[in-house]
Amino acid sequence: MTETRTELEKMELPDKEGRFGEYGGSYVPEQLQTILDEICQSYEAIKKDETFIAELRDLNKHFTGRPSPIFYAKNLSEKTGGADIYLKREDLNHTGAHKINHCLGEALLAKRMGKKKLIAETGAGQHGVALATAATLVGLECDIYMGEIDIIKEHPNVVRMKILGARVIPVDRGTKTLKDAVDAAFEAYVKDPVTQLYAIGSVVGPHPFPMMVRDFQQIVGQEAREQFREMTGKLPDNLVACVGGGSNAMGLFTAFLKDKDVAMFGVEPSGRGFKDGDHAATLTLGKPGVLHGFSSYLLQDEKGEPLPVYSVASGLDYPGVGPQHSLLKDLGRVTYVTASDIEAIDAFFELSRTDGIIPAIESAHAMAYAVKLAKEAGKGKTILVNLSGRGDKDIDFVLETYGKDYGL
Fold first, then answer.
1. Position 368 confidence tier, pLDDT thresholds 50, 70, 90
2. In whole angstroms, how far apart are CA 273 and each of 54, 175, 269, 323, 338?
3. Is 99 part of the annotated catalytic residue set?
4. What are the extents of the domains in the chain?
5. Which among 126, 127, 122, 179 is positioned nearest to 146, based on CA atoms?
C-alpha cells in the first residue's frame, strides 16, 4: 500500500488530457470537443474565483444544510457484534442525497457561461431532483431523461422533478433504464451544445466532467475527515460506499487516498447473479473500453458493445464506471466488492429497524457490505459508510416487491 500511495502522490489526477492513468480522456466529435474545451476553461477559471467559491459555500451551508453529520449506528453495531459502524449522513442533505453537491456547482457554472438550459439523465431520480432544484434556484430550464422502467420504480422522484418545473422525458428504448437515458440525453445535448449544459450525474463522461463532479463531491470526505477525528480521535479504519458511476464514493474517498492505514471498499451491485444482464458489477467483471465519450472499465461483449445491466437500485445499473475508480482498482488502492439485490434489501430493512434510518437502495448496498465487514474486522475497528441517499423514493417499490417477505 505504501508503493500505491507514493504512486498516487506523484500523479496529477487527471492529467492535462483528462486522463486518470490510461482511463478517462475525451472521445467525442470535433464540434463537441470545442464546447468541452470551453467548459473546461470556464471551470478552471471559476474554481479559483473567490466570488464563485463564496457563493457555492453559502449555498452548501444555507441551502443544502452542510455539513452533513456523522452518526454512530450504535444499535446496528451492537447487533452485528463487530466493528463500530458510522454513517456520513448525505441522506440529510436538501433533496435527499449527495447529488445536490455537484448539481449546485454545475448550475452555477452554466449560469456564468450564459447557458439557458441544464440537461441530464437520471436513474434513481436523485440526480434529476437535485438538478431540477438547482436549475430553479439559478433560473435555468431543465430537461431530465429517464428510462420508462425507472420512471415507474421511482415515481415519487418523478413527481418532485415535475413540481420543481423540470421536463421529464421518458426513454423507451433498449433496457429503458439508466444507460439508455444517458444515450438519449447525450444525443439531445449534441444537437445544441451551445445554449445547453449537460450536467452529468456522476464521475463519468468525457473530460472535464469526471474531474468536475469529483471536485464538487469531495466536500463529503473533507468534512468526514475532520468530523471523525473530532468524534473518535483518529481516522476511520475502513471506508465503504456504493459504486455505480461512482460519485458518492469518490466524494468520500478523495480526502483519504493518501492515508495508507485507511482501507477503502467500493460496493457494486451483483443483482440477481453474475449472468450477463443480471448485474452491474463493472469493476468486478468488466474490462477496459470506451462508452459515452470516455475510457473506463466496461461490461461489454466480444465486439466491445456495452452489455445489458441490472440492479434493484436504479442508480447503480450502469455498464461503465468513473475513470478514476478504474485507476484505483488497477493500483489496488480501493477494493471493489459486490452486494446482491437480496443483501441490499436485507440491509435496507436492517438499518430501518435498528437505527430508524431508511436508506436509499443504492446506499443499502454499501450497508450490506459494511455489516459483513464489521463481522470480519472485529471489535475495536471502525467503519465509515457514505449513506449517500434516503429511501423515501424507494418505499412504494420496496413495499410492493418485498413487503410480504418482511412482514408488511
1. very high
2. 47, 18, 9, 25, 10
3. yes
4. 26-60+99-214, 66-96+218-406
5. 122
Task: Please state, for a pLDDT cut of 90, what percent of the chain lies above it.
Answer: 95
Q: Which amino acid is at 315?
A: G
3-state SS assignment for residue 89: strand
Question: Is there a contact between 133 and 95 (Cβ–Cβ < 8 Å)?
Answer: yes
Q: Could you tell me the three cell numbers for 303?
A: 465486439
Q: Grade residue 386 by pLDDT with cuts at 50, 70 and 90.
A: very high
Note if 38 is an active site residue.
no
What type of residue sits at position 141? E
Q: What is the pLDDT of residues 188-229, one digit of tens each?
A: 998 999 999 999 999 999 999 999 999 999 999 999 999 999
Which of these CATH numbers, 2.30.110.10, 3.40.50.300, 3.40.50.1100, 3.40.630.10, describes 26-60+99-214? 3.40.50.1100
57: DSSP letter: H
Q: Are 239 and 312 in contact (CB under 8 A)?
A: no
Which triple of cell numbers denotes residue 50?
473567490
Please provide the average confidence, as pLDDT, over all residues in the chain: 96
pLDDT band at 10 (very low <50, low <70, confident <90, very high): low
Q: Please identify which of the residues 26, 88, 99, 117 carries the catalytic annotation.
A: 99
Q: Known catalytic residue: 44?
A: no
Q: Has this prediction a pTM greater than 0.90?
A: yes
| Whether pLDDT at 1 is above 70 | no
- Domain 26-60+99-214 identical in fold to domain 66-96+218-406: yes
Record: fold of 66-96+218-406: Rossmann fold (3.40.50)
Rounded Cα–Cα distance for residues 18 and 225 (Å): 27
Give pLDDT tens digits for 130-185: 999 999 999 999 999 999 999 999 999 999 999 999 999 999 999 999 999 999 99
- Measured CA to CA, the distance from residue 120 to residue 146 in angstroms comes to 9
Residue with the three cell numbers 448485474: 279
Helix, strand, coil percentages, rounded to 5, for the chain = 50, 20, 30
Of 176, 326, 388, 393, which one is the catalytic site residue?
A: 388
Residues 6+ apart with CB under 8 A from 303: none
